[in-house]
Design a protein that fits this description.
By secondary structure, this protein is α+β, with helices and mostly antiparallel strands. It has helices at about 40-65, 80-100, 100-105, 110-135, 135-180, and strands spanning about 15-20, 180-185, 200-205, 215-220, 235-240, 245-250. The protein contains 5 helices and 6 strands. A 6-stranded antiparallel beta sheet has the order 1-4-3-2-5-6. The protein starts with 15 loop residues before the first strand and ends in a 25-residue tail after the last strand. Residues about 1-5 and about 265-270 have low confidence and may be disordered.
């Protein structure tokens, strides 16, 4: 995947326009030059490593607290030698899924659901092993079963979300490659009364074939202090079926609305999405 200046391209925080109402973690962010990656064996091993690391860390931490059944509680602190490295390994694999998951999904929510499924997937066997070692199978096995159920639910939503995200990435890349491009402009600010991590804005563009002027309403997903002002140049891409893609025009600098107070939802000073 192409990465400008060697940086992770998803660090760049720019307004993203959606035409199907996507918002929050369901916004598909496809940086310029990005390609849709495939699920390699390496990525699957990273996910599996995260699950194993969590499971071993749970077992080690549990034995530190309680010690194995019939064992000496004084010696239970030795289990830190298992818990601490396992927790560090799990954290490293978490970071791997977090970073490497974006080129595969380009949406935050399914990636986060995959991490949640992996967390539950590690906690469940870890609690089951603890139950077997401590003779408290009843309580811990119920907790393990609950974690396994959470893993199944989060995993199902993650799989569905990943499939939807990848279809949307394919759509965006197709429109970039073969959609007819028109120069457009944002003609108004979003309504502060309906602002919710973004808002609707009208975009006007002129059809190059018949010269007709069109206006479409799209959602801009951005921070309250980074709302493009009216007149901001965008590129509108459209295919034969009328599917639309609206993106900021990289040839023109973006000017942001200087007064974000009416859009802010908190007092952190940084604005809110």
């Amino acid at each position: 995947m192409a990465q400008p200046d060697g940086e992770w391209p998803w660090i760049e925080d720019r307004p993203v326009f959606t035409t199907r109402g996507e918002r929050g973690g369901n916004v598909t962010a496809v940086p310029a030059g990005a390609v849709l990656g495939s699920f390699t064996r390496r990525f699957r091993l990273v996910v599996a490593g995260f699950v194993v690391g969590v499971a071993v860390a749970v077992v080690g931490a549990g034995l530190v607290v309680s010690g194995p059944s019939g064992g000496s509680s004084a010696g239970s602190w030795w289990w830190l030698a298992l818990a601490v490295p396992a927790a560090g390994f799990a954290l490293l694999q978490f970071a791997g899924v977090y970073v490497e998951g974006m080129p595969l999904m380009m949406r935050e929510r399914p990636r986060n659901l995959l991490l949640l499924a992996g967390l539950f997937g590690g906690v469940a066997p870890g609690l089951a092993v603890l139950g077997a070692l401590n003779g408290a199978e009843g309580v811990l096995l119920v907790a393990a079963a609950a974690a396994a159920f959470g893993c199944a639910v989060a995993g199902a939503f993650a799989v569905r979300g990943i499939r939807r995200a990848r279809r949307d990435v394919v759509r965006i890349l197709r429109l970039r490659a073969s959609g007819t491009a028109y120069a457009g402009t944002i003609t108004a600010l979003p309504d502060p009364r309906t602002w919710n991590h973004g808002g609707d804005v009208p975009v006007r563009y002129r059809d190059g074939d018949d010269g007709a002027e069109h206006t479409v309403t799209v959602r801009v997903n951005t921070w309250a202090h980074e709302i493009p002002v009216p007149g901001t140049r965008v590129i509108v891409r459209r295919d034969e079926d009328g599917d639309l893609l609206v993106e900021l025009d990289p040839a023109h600098p973006v000017e942001y609305h200087p007064d974000s107070r009416s859009y802010e939802q908190d007092t952190s000073g940084g604005g809110s999405m």
